[in-house]
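the two lines:
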Amino acid sequence: MRALTLLSFGAILAFASTQLLAAGSIENGKQKAATCFACHGTDGNAVDPQYPRLAGQYNMYLQQALNEYKTGQRDNAIMKGFVAQLSDQDIQDVAAYFSSLPTKLDTVHGHIQGDKD
Amino acid sequence: MTRLQLLGLTVAAAFFATASVHAEGDKAAGRKLIYTCNGCHGVPGYANAYPNYPVPRIAGQNEQYIVNALHEYKAGDRKHPTMMAQAQSLSDQDIQDIAAYLSSLAK
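prediction for all of em together
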């Protein structure tokens, strides 16, 4: 019984995350991301080190960051101007696009002192 | 004379401030310092619960962006309770070291 409860809880979680990820369109995001390329690179890997790499960053983190720029919780003069023009759907699409690109990013797992290279 | 000395002091202070910002980070030191980061940034797809926040991939991120982010957390300009606390425990040199190491991990 407990296993069944756990299983259904897992199923709900899986469903919930599918919903979140399914919301963005990579194809539409590619069109809408054209403005981003000047700073963040055409492949989502910014050349100027003051700008972050977006390629392969987590979808949910990119959405979170864009929403924070929009509300002003994260305060950046450059990003503020751009996100003001983005709808919730635009944010989901752009995040879907950049997160789908080949990445140079990784978690720090395996990179800390004592780990193998 | 006093005015001239003040000017000299200001110029010297500005010079040192700039010099410290551009100080080279030590990758080996950074590798040790990021031990704490592993708890959240080492878990693929991890979202921490309070507050609910998706944790980004930071290995391979660009150097100056990491430096800026950590200084913003330290100053409270960028707000996330855990990251603000972590950044406040770091010196400017620590931040340089961490950024130098993490940016060197680009795949």
